[in-house]
Design a protein that fits this description.
- With 281 residues, this protein is mostly helical.
- It has one domain: Four Helix Bundle (Hemerythrin (Met), subunit A).
- The chain has 6 helices and 2 strands; from the N terminus they run ααααααββ.
- Helix 1 packs antiparallel against helix 6, helix 4 runs antiparallel to helix 5 and helix 4 packs antiparallel against helix 6.
- The longest helix has 99 residues.
- The protein is rod-shaped.
- The two termini are 49 Å apart.
């Protein structure tokens, strides 16, 4: 009976096993979802990193374009002063227009960086000085001739403005490159963390799924053995009950016979003997 009770308890624990199984597979699914989330996060980080790289390159390219336009202003007004040829004033005017365009673009690109905004304000303050200087030089050449323009340019104001302009450009470029290095390092760190979490989540999900599968196989095997054992025990009990009932029936029948009945096995051992009660005198 204790064996039967144990088997019945084991079979009654199936709902608990099913809950454990559901929990195991649910955990595996959560691990896989975690892997998906980390993959998405990695893509977002990578996209953000690429965006900042492109942003920095745009700033650097526009700074270089602004420097080129400034140099064109200087060379155009110098050529006009030397030759008096009005054709040099067109590239001069075009370069000034480019400088104003680049100023707007660079200000917009660095709107999130107050320090860079201050440097850019200084940069285009120098642009204003350079244009004012060039306009004065051109006006002197047009109205008073080469000697007056040459005397004005000998003050060294033009070269000084260009030197300061290049210095500010260099500072802005260095800051953009520094920010690019920091952003790139941060992106690599985040991607490394994401890669580690992906590996961890994948391994965890695999372990949970493997453990759940092994638990299912083990429990199924144990349940089959328990069911088979219970079935065999029930069959034996049914056979024993039938045999006992048959013996009881035979005993009642033999005891009801008035004569003595003796039964032996092949070795001569008595296996049955009915007792005949003597009638009372």
């Amino acid at each position: 009976m204790s064996r039967t009770k144990s088997i019945l308890i084991q079979m009654k624990t199936n709902p608990l096993f099913n809950r454990k199984l559901q929990l195991a597979f649910g955990s595996a699914i959560l691990a896989l979802l975690f892997v998906d989330v980390m993959s998405f996060r990695g893509m977002v980080v990578s996209t953000e990193s690429d965006r900042w790289v492109r942003h920095t390159h745009e700033v650097l390219e526009n700074l270089q374009s602004s420097l080129s336009a400034m140099q064109e202003v200087e060379s155009s007004d110098r050529e006009f002063v030397l030759t008096g040829n009005e054709q040099f004033l067109k590239p001069y005017r075009d370069s000034i227009f480019r400088l104003h365009e680049e100023e707007t673009i660079i200000k917009n690109l660095t709107a999130d960086n107050p320090e860079q905004q201050l440097r850019i304000a200084t940069l285009y303050g120098l642009v204003g000085q350079k244009i004012q200087y060039a306009e004065t030089l051109i006006n002197l050449r047009q109205t008073k001739g080469l000697e007056a323009a040459a005397e004005f340019s000998s003050s060294g104001t033009g070269p000084r403005i260009m030197s300061e302009y290049r210095d500010v450009i260099r500072v802005i470029q260095d800051e953009e490159l520094r920010l690019l290095h920091l952003r790139d390092a941060d992106a690599k760190r985040r991607l490394g963390q994401t890669r580690e979490m992906l590996i961890f989540g994948s391994v965890l999900g695999l372990l949970i799924a493997t453990a759940a599968g092994w638990s299912v196989q083990r429990d199924n095997s144990g349940r089959r053995l328990a069911e088979e054992s219970l079935r065999n025990m029930m069959e034996r009990k049914t056979a024993e009950d039938a045999l006992f009932t048959e013996k009881e029936r035979a005993s009642v029948t033999l005891n009801s016979i008035g004569d003595a009945v003796l039964s032996t096995d092949i070795l001569g051992n008595i296996t049955y003997l009915n007792i005949i009660s003597k009638p009372a005198p």
